[in-house]
Amino acid sequence: MRTFLRIIGVLVVIAVVAFLAFLFIPVQRTPAQAALPDSWTPEEGQGEYAMRLGDCMACHTAPGGEPFAGGREIESPLGVIYASNITPDNQTGIGGWSLDDFRAALYDGVGPDGTHLYPAMPYENFGRISEEDVRAMYDYFMNDVPPVDNAVSETALSFPFNQRWGLRAWNWVALSDAAGFTAESTDPELSRGEYIVEGPGHCGACHSPRNAIMAEAALDGSDPQFLAGGEIAGWTAPALRGPNSAIRGWSADEVAAIMGTGRNAHSAVNGEMQLVVQDSSQYFTDEDLQAVGAYLVSLNDDGPAPEVTDDGATEALLASADPSMALGARLYLDNCNACHFANGQGADEVFPALAGNSLVTAAQPTGLISMILNGSELPSTAARPYRLRMPGFAARLSDDEVAALASFVRQGWGNAAAPVEAGSVADLRDQGDAATH
Amino acid sequence: MTNPSSQPPAFRTSRRRFLGGTASVAALAGLARPGEAQDQPDPRAALDGYTPEFLSAAEWAFIVAATARIIPSEGDGPGAIEAQVPVFIDRQLAGEFGAATDLYMEGPFVADADPNFGLQTPLTPAEIYREGIAAFDQWCQQEQGSSFADLDASAQDAALTALSRGEAGLAPEVRDFWTHLLQNTREGYFADPMYGGNAGMQAWVYIGYPGARANFREWVGRDEPYPMGPVNIAGERA
């Protein structure tokens, strides 16, 4: 009995020591992935371009706020996370951070004092950013970004998610891949595209599914889970590969067009992707846009484009203007047909096609319902400056009407998604009202 | 519900048959049928629930009576009363139109200048209505012995005809009264119901106008009636 108690006692001591070690021993930082001479300096504009590739601006700038001064509310399944101030302000920003501190934040999600960052910071992906880009970005933030004194609200998640040591455990399990980037392909364009998509572009942060512990299910293109579709703020981030790929059948040029301008012949960006185009991808060079396009298309060459199963019945019904048509079709004629047309094809570069549209047919109709209720406005880009806008129909349509309309477009022109319940519409309408009041 | 706008203009049914076939519209607006006025509710009852914002009781009585003669209920199609045109006019006079918000209202004013010089009155449309109704009613009192609203239909028609010809003795400052009244009656009849008139989109149903739908690409060049009823800006269907 005494022996047994002694063993238990020793185990408890070991557990406590291990836990304290877990809490207090500093995290090992990932070193630089390439040796650059100390004298290396970025070319003019290289740092800002690396920042654009990483889209630091979208999250670290509050709506209407100073660039990079933080404060944007990032919705996460765990609660609201406030983006930090990453201007070089000494008190409230990252002034005084060393290059190693900066790299550790990008690669390991660790602040200079060892505090773990919330994984809203996509360090899972940023571990693939090249040392050159890390150095260039560091140079940009330290020397080109003006410091802004802006103390950001503390993120206050509920227990246990407010225990930052838990993130260490999470990182331990989640970050299985070592830092560093190795391209699949020897083709320079494809490998450049893969670098941007997997690394600084952190496309997988939204477009890859999350696993049981909410980590990205895959971090590189060799895994079919990578970019197989995810969710962001309740909206579906569509699959970019596989049978439900939103870009199946698109050319590299068409991918490049929607990344560079926000729209192409098929579609237009919506939801969070509008911020990506506005603050990041519209600044990509034509070569980089083509590289991203070529790489994403290469993930979709594993089968023919899905057969179009539209038998023309939806278009015929709408074109008939038959007063006895069901409510959903009637609402489409009254509210949508003027721009998206009876054939559901919209107009190239202006009105997105609804037939085969990934937002329309997403398993979760949140994005579609939100689009109908609140409308959408495309970002202004250098190539397409006009902010094309779809109006919201919240004032014009009841919950039942929105549900009937959404169900109609989810099942028209060969679309085959589940119908929408009025209750889902009511929930989203309440959220929208709460956000604006 | 059968939709009268499905009939091409050449074959459009008479208003009587239209009413018989659209009982729900009739119930909605409290329409009266010609020749059956004795056992039908007065169409003006539909206006009873409305409290005018701008017009006084006497002015309201005038507008109701005048618009009822400009687009009568006994003709082909709904009348101004069924379409609640007086509501439209009252709300316009209470709003920016009445206050001349969009008009140039600096002098000099030469009210009796040739009409080719355009609007010359110092009065806002709301003031033109107010002074015009008072002056015209006084003229009716002198000529016919009663205010306009209390005249019988044929006397009202004669008075309005005189008014339209500038023979009702109105001062130059209010000489545009008839022009406004006629124009605003038409507007109230055909404008979107959000402005108070065209109740239940009756005027649109009557002429087969589909309202705020905006795209009829499949119907261009087809020599057949467009069957779908109208939708208004608020999204209501008729």
Task: Give an account of the 3D structure.
The complex is a heterodimer of chains A (437) and B (238). By secondary structure, chain A is mainly alpha-helical. Chain A folds into three domains: 2-174, no CATH class; 188-299, Orthogonal Bundle (Cytochrome Bc1 Complex, Chain D, domain 2); 313-436, Orthogonal Bundle (Cytochrome Bc1 Complex, Chain D, domain 2). Chain A contains 19 helices and six strands. Chain A has helices spanning 2-24, 46-54, 56-60, 99-108, 123-126, 131-143, 164-174, 188-198, 204-207, 252-261, 273-279, 286-298, 313-320, 327-335, 337-340, 358-361, 366-374, 399-411, 422-436; strands at 73-76, 79-82, 230-232, 235-237, 376-377, 389-390. The longest helix of chain A has 23 residues, at 2-24. With 238 residues, chain B is mainly α. Chain B has one domain. Chain B has helices at residues 15-21, 23-29, 57-70, 85-94, 125-144, 153-164, 177-190, 202-207. In chain B, helix 4 (85-94) packs across helix 7 (177-190). The longest helix of chain B is centred in the middle third of the chain and has 20 residues, at 125-144. The model of chain B is unreliable at 1-38 (pLDDT under 50).
Question: Any descriptors?
Answer:
heterodimer; A: 437 residues; mainly alpha; Cytochrome Bc1 Complex, Chain D, domain 2; 3 domains; two-stranded antiparallel ribbon; 19 helices; 42% helix; globular; B: 238 residues; 8 helices; 38% helix
Strand percentage of chain B lies at under 5%
Q: Unreliable runs of chain A, pLDDT <50, ≥5 residues?
A: none
Total tally of structural domains of chain A: 3
Q: Give the beta-strand count of chain B.
A: 0
Q: Helix/strand-derived class of chain B? A: mainly alpha
Gap between N and C termini of chain A, in Å? 66 Å
**Biggest sheet: strand arrangement of chain A:** 1-2
Give the helix level of chain A as a range of percent.
40-55%
Report the oligomer.
heterodimer
Major β-sheet profile of chain A: 2 strands, antiparallel
Q: N-to-C SSE series of chain B?
A: HHHHHHHH
Q: Report the sheet with the most strands of chain B, covering strand number, pairing sense and barrel closure.
A: none
What percent of the residues of chain B sit in helical stretches (DSSP H or I)? Answer: 25-40%
The computed structural class of chain A is mainly alpha
Could you name the ranges of chain B where pLDDT drops below 50 across 5 or more consecutive residues? Answer: 1-38
Q: Biggest interface and its residues per chain?
A: A-B, 19 and 17 residues
Q: What's the tally of helices of chain B?
A: 8
* Mean pLDDT value of chain B: 85
Shape call of chain B: globular
